[in-house]
UniProtKB/TrEMBL annotation:
The lineage of its organism: Bacteria, Pseudomonadati, Pseudomonadota, Alphaproteobacteria, Rhodobacterales. This is Aminotransferase class V-fold PLP-dependent enzyme. Residues 24-391 form the Aminotransferase class V domain. InterPro entries: Aminotrans_V_dom. Keywords: Aminotransferase, Pyridoxal phosphate, Transferase. GO terms for molecular function: transaminase activity. It comes from the Bacteria. Transmembrane segments: none annotated.
């Protein structure tokens, strides 16, 4: 069992006076930052805010912290250190990768995308149609939101060079079988790009074991600073044309980061590894076991919320009704606009979100008016059982 009091003690937000009485249910938009990240970011700005990798101490220490962040996060994710890169955001990272594929691919070749994705892992790839690249859409079931791997198989042939899909949708919530889908794509000779933004907050995945060629997520949703993290496996990274400065083309992680790195925020990302190590030590498990602790806690809290929502006839619950099959990112379509319902929850101390959440294609694919939007209730492992009870009670009152 996850020690929830110990967990919450690692997040300064829970001791912040201005946040007392507030229950945070818009974590899919960005999580609270853990103390090690805040400490590292503050230290860097106070002591090491100089150009890194120079011969003087402040510069040397700054560079060492940046290297530490890359090394420890890569180890946590099960990949080589130079296969992990940082960028301004996942959207920007995906755009840069799409430009690399634009140069590598030939007219008539194909990319598979889904209508379950956040626009960040859909729009940049779809734009390649302007260069003669065929875009094939793997569509989800309009009732359940499910992506059927059998439907993907029917789209695959020797023209497909890349398959893009989410580990977990930010409105459907279902956890897609990354290993199975990756195997199908690889068997057809295609590379795989996985958007992990909505999954990674619920336990850092072992990307090396999952097998995709690209995996992207946002550290500001995994208790860290505002950065995009991307893993590009060596075989693909060395094949794609360099998108950075020409003289950096020989360094794997610099090939797809044309923007100058944010030194302080990269260094602060080591705090995420500090946090995982702290949880592992406290609970007497290996670092890899923290993922299971997080998921078990979230699943236990999620099922009562799903049951309550599913029993109502005045809303539509999107995605699976079993907590084991999904992340605790729960979207509901209501007669009222999602933003309006979120606004009604706010005076009761429930911080939730409403809108389309840049998942316009996914909502449309399920017959939901994206302009009307949905109410989204999202939490992570630091959410308490008492907060779930309070959320249900408040929803009962507001709805």
């Amino acid at each position: 069992m996850l020690d929830i009091e110990f967990v919450r003690a690692q997040f300064p937000a829970f001791a912040e006076p201005s946040l007392q009485g507030q229950a945070f249910f818009e974590n899919a938009g960005g999580s609270y930052a853990c103390a090690p990240v805040i400490d590292r970011l503050t230290r860097f700005y106070r002591e090491r805010k100089v150009q890194p990798y120079g011969p003087y101490q402040a510069s040397r220490l700054g560079g060492e912290e940046m290297d530490e962040a890359r090394r420890r996060m890569a180890a946590l994710l099960g990949v080589a250190t130079d296969e992990l890169g940082f960028g301004p955001s996942t959207t920007q990272n995906t755009y840069v990768l799409a430009q690399a594929f634009r140069r590598m691919m030939q007219p008539g070749e194909a990319i598979v995308v889904t209508n379950q994705d956040h626009e960040a892992n859909s729009g940049p790839w779809r734009r390649l149609a302007e260069d003669g690249i065929e875009i094939r859409e793997w569509r989800m079931d309009p009732e359940t939101g499910h992506l059927d791997p059998a439907a993907l198989e029917r789209l695959l042939d020797d023209k497909v060079r890349l398959v893009c899909f989410p580990h977990c949708s930010n409105v459907v919530g279902e956890i897609n079988p990354v290993t199975e889908i990756t195997a199908l794509a690889h068997a057809a000779g295609a590379f795989v790009c996985v958007d992990g933004v909505s999954y990674a907050p619920h336990g850092f995945p072992d990307i090396g074991a999952l097998g995709p060629d690209i995996y992207l997520f946002s550290s500001y949703k995994t208790y860290g600073p505002h950065q995009g993290i991307m893993v590009t496996r060596r075989a693909l990274a060395e094949t794609l044309p360099n998108q950075g400065h020409y003289f950096n083309g020989g360094t794997l992680y610099k090939r797809f980061t044309p923007a100058g790195p944010d030194h302080a925020q990269i260094a602060a990302c080591a705090g995420m590894a500090d946090y995982v190590d702290t949880l592992a030590a406290h609970h007497g498990v290996a670092a890899g076991g923290v993922h299971g602790l997080m998921r078990a806690h979230e699943t236990r809290l999620l099922q009562p919320l799903l049951d309550w929502l599913a029993a109502r006839n005045d809303l539509r619950l999107l995605g699976p009704r079993r907590a084991e099959a999904r992340a605790p990112t729960v979207a509901v379509a209501l007669a009222r606009r999602g933003e309006d319902v979120a606004a009604d929850l706010a005076p009761h101390g429930i911080m939730a979100g409403g809108g389309d959440f840049y998942a316009v294609r996914a909502l449309q694919g399920m017959g939901v008016d994206a302009d009307h939007g949905v109410l989204r209730l999202s939490f992570v492992h630091y959410t308490s059982e008492a907060e779930i009870g309070r959320l249900i009670e408040t929803l009962e009152r507001v709805l």
